Amino acid sequence: MNQEKWLLVKENFEGTEDLTDGYYRLRSIEEGYEFAYLVAGPCGDKIPHPTIKLRKEGTHIQPIALRDLEETPILNLTEVEGDRKKIEEQTEQLLDRFIKIKKLSI
What we know:
The protein is of the alpha+beta class. Helix content is 25%, strand content 43%. It has helices at 3-11, 84-101, and strands at residues 15-19, 22-28, 32-40, 46-57, 60-68, 75-78. It has a 6-stranded antiparallel beta sheet with strand order 1-2-3-4-5-6, covered by helices on one side. Helix 1 (3-11) crosses helix 2 (84-101).
């Protein structure tokens, strides 16, 4: 995972933001952080599309799990099951999307 992109996102955002393409959420959790893109559900709820758990490893952040409730079937990936590459790809895509929508630059 690109640590420079992660730091840019973290410095420019924490909490939940309603941006033009949906909701983004960044919050601290026990393992490290949870970064999510949320879409509006039929009852006004917010559905993760996806939500990614990030673990602090020293000074670096590593994606360890991904869940996407908008996919059919539900996408539930963990590094334990050998899905690290797919989780990292999805994390990079979400970081890129957030950076683009906020018009940030590295």
